[in-house]
Amino acid sequence: MASLISLGLKGKDGKYTNITVAVNDETNQFGQNVSAWVEQTKEQREAKEKKNYIGNGKVVWTDNGKVIKAGETKQASELAEADGLDF
Predict the structure, then answer these.
(1) Who's near 82: CB < 8 A, 6+ residues apart?
(2) Cα dihedral value 7, 9, 15, 19, nearest 10
(3) Cα Rg of the chain, angstroms
(4) pLDDT one-digit tens code per residue, 15-25
(5) Distance of alpha carbon 51 from alpha carbon 56, whole angstroms
């Protein structure tokens, strides 16, 4: 099983490039289990377009093997409540 991470990187021009990072359970012949590529649209994925890989690597530390949890988007009301704002 792998985990996918969606990451936005800000360039010098102030524009963001969305990157997808995969963390796999198994390593390849080089001991790597992480890869990164420029995010694809749904249409590009369905058309099986080639990914634009930008890097590979490996996990160098874990927190006692805990499972990565998926991020959750908070609603505006939840964010306001957490900040002590009243809407």
Answers:
(1) 74
(2) -50
(3) 17
(4) 999 999 999 98
(5) 13
